[in-house]
Give the backbone structure.
Amino acid sequence: QVQLVESGGGVVQPGGSLRVSCAASGFTFSNYGMHWVRQAPGKGLEWVAVIWYDGSNERYADSVKGRFTISRDNSKNTLYLQLNIPRAEDSAVYYCAREAGGPLDYWGQGTLVTVSS
Amino acid sequence: EIVLTQSPGTLSLSPGDRATLSCRASQSVSSGFLAWYQQKPGQAPRLLIYGASSRATGIPNRFSGSGSGTDFTLTISRLEPEDFAVYYCQQYGRSPLWAFGQGTKVEIK
């Protein structure tokens, strides 16, 4: 069965850096685009970034462009999100999700990132 | 840039009632590229509907989606206790590529 398991969340200082990961299993990871979506405490869902199935292209939300980097290692079935120069408003649960030609059909359980000094 | 507006913000209903949730886009959504998700407290979102009206795998047929252009609707024909949750619409394909509405909470009256 499809499984997505995020890890790497925690407390990071404003202006610091953090990398969160998403380990995929149960499907051919290299065939699918992958996304990061976040949810601040008590708030709605915010799309963050997408990476094409082969890593050839990436797109970002304006709120994170230039600060966050999405990447993947298809040999390790793992998706990454590098958070650079995080701000307090980046505090959220970060979900990875598999894209099925547009809609996001499988989601991980999320990893909590807290930006605080 | 496309913006999705969901209404109402909260829907107070009883089990067995019919729920009608609205999602309005600021621009036409390409080819019906509109999805609906359900999220329960402490859980990840779950895909319910894609392509505006197609049910995802394993989704009960009491959930249905309709609409085109800028106006879309999620209907739950008869609410079951497990359907009380927050529902999000999402468009894919137009800037900002993947965007969510702000959500509608369906709560027990």
